[in-house]
Amino acid sequence: MDLTYPPETETFRTEIRSWLEENLPPGWGEPGFQMTRAERKAFNQEWVGKLHQGGWICASWPEEYGGKGLSLIELVVLNEEFARRDAPMRADFFGDTLVGPTILQWGTEAQKQEFIPKILNGTISWCQGFSEPDAGSDLASLTTRAVADGDEWVVTGQKVWTTQAQFADYIFLLARTDPDVEKHQGISYLLLPMKQPGVDVRPITQIDGSAEFNEVYFDEARCPRQNVVGGDNNGWKVAMTTLGFERGSSATTGHRRFQKELDTIVAAARRRGRDADPQVRQGLAHAWSKVKIMQINGYRSLTDALHGTHHAAALGAMNKMFWSEYHRQTMELAIDILGLEGQILTGTGGEVDADGALARRGNPGYPVSELQASFFFSRSETIWGGTAEIQRNIVGERVLGLPKEPKTAGQATPSSVPGSASSTRS
Fold first, then answer.
1. Could you tell me if 226 and 260 lie in one domain?
2. Which band of pLDDT confidence, cut at 50, 70 and 90, is reported for residue 2?
3. Mind telling me the catalytic residues?
């Protein structure tokens, strides 16, 4: 790690701090600060407009397309200052972080003019259609097909684990457009409208009653021919670009959500008198050390991104494996600290819970607390975005130089694994 912030970034840091001071509600982030549900709703509605007016949404995008043209280090400073004040950025992950930058890199000028302004002003929402029931880690085995019909593609197939599909206007999906070539070469990257006949979204209900993920069925759904990004049958290369956009800008802030959650766990241990238990104390100390390692690795990742060193996929695999396994272990510790109380529903269905944190999933029919919700979700994190087993293969082969693992028929190789350098789920 060899990272020094340029002097000019401190001027930019001061600018961001001043803007946040002027635009956040008085007392934001101070001890005892609270908002009612109505106040929070009003703030969320107004805040996106302020972010857009300030130019902080997609601020690294070129100025000609509505961004500020920020460099990577400037974007890092922006994220750091928003995280320092616990100020929310707009939560349009699929549009801002994935498909928007992909269109900017691979799209035609007509595609940029059509979609980029709508992503920036929030008038269009997206979901990601990569994974299929039989094409998860081995994404290149996907079977969803698109057949040309005049000026349109006719799409038939199924996607699964599709986050936000029930709300999305468009899905950026991979479909097989040439079945007669090698499987990586016959795939195209399509921008398909969701609100049409032939698109059926079926929620996948989880253990806490929420339905964040969906199955999506396509039965001769229509997609304009001009909505192919990067050209026909070039979708694999475009998709790998999409899955690499998460790296870099959040490197120095990615550990903060784990630190904040660990603070909540420590507070719960103290309230329940478990902080005197030697095993609990050892577990908490172990978790704290892992969060600090994430912080240091974040600076290492940023250094690599700035200097163009290291193999992105290998570094991403190490980081993803580390934080996802950490989170599962730590949430098991949290449930152990809660004891029998962790086995009953102690949340309030979306309001502030007993531990002083807003429940992630506010389901009145199954009111889990923040820690319970996080425990449930952590079980999936070693699977989506490339399983822990796949990450180990990547690290072993690309970092340690070990021989490739023998494959059975149809088994994926690490090079065909989406999300190996990211935490994307689709």
1. no
2. low
3. 246
